[in-house]
Design a protein that fits this description.
It is a single chain. By secondary structure, the protein is of the alpha+beta class. The chain has a single domain (about 5-70), classed as Alpha-Beta Plaits. It contains three helices and three strands; from the N terminus they run βαβαβα. The protein has a three-stranded antiparallel β-sheet with strand order 1-3-2. The radius of gyration is 13 Å and the shape is globular. The protein starts with a strand and ends with a helix.
């Protein structure tokens, strides 16, 4: 079984930008947005937040892209 590595949590719009950059180099990130399930369960939660994961095997290839992207957005 492949293991996943968490790489980002933040606003959905920013996460989607990072996901697009990673897809350009052939990495298919996993998106996780707990807001809908929290609301369905009657819980509050952080609005407009998404977590992004990638396969651990892709981490070395993705690292420069992640660092560049976060620098561009000031994080």
């Amino acid at each position: 079984m492949e293991e996943n590595e968490w790489i980002y949590t933040g606003p959905t719009l920013v996460a989607k930008g990072l996901i697009a950059r990673l897809k350009e180099i052939g990495i298919n990130p996993i998106e996780r947005n707990d807001q809908e399930s929290n609301l369905m369960g009657g819980f509050g939660g952080v609005i407009n937040q998404m977590m992004v994961f990638i396969k651990k095997d892709d981490l070395l290839k993705a690292q420069p892209i992640i660092e560049e992207f976060l620098k561009e957005i000031g994080e």
